[in-house]
## 1
Amino acid sequence: MALDIKICGLKTPDAIAAALTGGASHVGFIFFGKSPRNVDPETAGRLRTAAQGRAKAVAVTVDADDAALDRIIAAMRPDMLQLHGRETPERTAELKARYGLPVIKAFSVHDATDLAAIMPYRGVADRLLFDAKPPKGSDLPGGNGVSFDWRALAALDGDVDYMLSGGLNAGNIAEALKATNAPGIDISSGVEVAPGEKDVRLIAEFFQAVRAATNTMSGAA
Ligand SMILES: O=C(O)c1ccccc1N[C@@H]1O[C@H](COP(=O)(O)O)[C@@H](O)[C@H]1O
């Protein structure tokens, strides 16, 4: 099965073009005021048109209320919603029904005990996303550029569809894929030169590293 690759926190046409040229399956837009990657829904709506028919456009929100989500959905027309806050299984189901969109639910992981949290979301969220816990003092629930111990995911059932995120970059993606065999990966800080500032060269290098890693893994199989 092809590896899904999401480049998240996009804010400029150049960065989106680099993500699409590299072969991103998903492009993510952040709607969270405290993030250096925050975009307004209208800007995201303009930017996401480049991805039409090429990659799924994902709206990333954090405990957003209905009014904020209504505005995001109307202006951006995302293909998917990513819930990166403390949204309950009930809220997740409600949003799926309200907008008729597939939902990615994010979980923060330190060790295998954190995986118990996913149980009530199985059959509710369409896909799970595993990110590291935010460092102490961080204002952001994600996008902190920190990894967790990927061995924690060894306890997952084989049928769990998820994306691995948190501190991925061109230098560690081979090890991350080898450790997890993740069906999808998600990166933001690792292709930036400063918080919120994507770099087209780093994006291209990330895709090269992913291709090299997947070629090595399929050769070894
Ligand atoms: O990137 C952000 O600023 C952000 C803000 C609020 C919620 C989620 C956010 N990003 C998510 O974090 C991971 C990527 O993090 P990293 O920078 O690669 O470590 C990814 O799931 C983004 O969607």
Note: The helical segments are 13-22, 41-47, 66-76, 89-99, 173-180, 200-220.
## 2
Amino acid sequence: MTPSTAPLITARGLEKAYGRTDALRGASLTLGAGEILAVTGASGSGKSTLLHCLAGIVTPDSGSVRYDGKQVENLSEAQRTELRRTDFGILFQFGQLIPELSAMDNVALPLLLAGVRRAAAHQQAADWLGKFGVYGQARLRPGEMSGGQAQRVSLARALVTGPKVVFADEPTGALDTLTGEQVMTTLVQSARESGCAVVLITHDAQVAAYADREVVLRDGVVKADEPWAAEHFSRAEVRGND
Ligand SMILES: Nc1ncnc2c1ncn2[C@@H]1O[C@H](COP(=O)(O)OP(=O)(O)OP(=O)(O)O)[C@@H](O)[C@H]1O
């Protein structure tokens, strides 16, 4: 079921406070290479903060994140930026496409920054826009698209460089059920083909069901960590104890 071997990411005892709000209170988890992990939990339970710590965007107050032999919190800002550029694909909750650029240019940009020639970058960007069903919007700027289209363009941008890990905050949040299923199928298929791991935040049990494993956060702590096939541990029970 899970194609993972040694952990690609190991997070231990992550704590993060914003002022008086404890967003994370000792969260720990592992992610295997090529593993698809769903992170679920109530609003405000710390999911986005956890994802941002794993991706090296936010530095935890304490605890550690180890990625591929590197201690992420010990890297310089420049090294972390480089890591995000080379190894990670990130889909933020609100897309964060560059408003002045077309969909095509937004998706091609990470490739151009990596030194890929313009024609090849645009060809790959076109392929990814096609996979996510938004090639027709290639010339549009984010403000000229629907939220769901912008979300799919953001996913294409997250995947275009062939990352080792994709971090996706609510990848189907702005999509109707059918489009959400199509997007999840494409995301999972692409990840399987390339051996890319995915950390996916979702409120939607149907979306979480695409994952190999689900972790449930509650009040900044991982409350349950279960493989999807674990029949002895019902998801309803986990949630029912709230
Ligand atoms: N930049 C910030 N400044 C202040 N407080 C923050 C910040 N980011 C998160 N928080 C707070 O930390 C807690 C955890 O937030 P986080 O966004 O990680 O939760 P979440 O589970 O992703 O929520 P949601 O499902 O609503 O997106 C919340 O109480 C939130 O208000």
Note: Residues 228-242 have pLDDT under 50 and may be disordered.
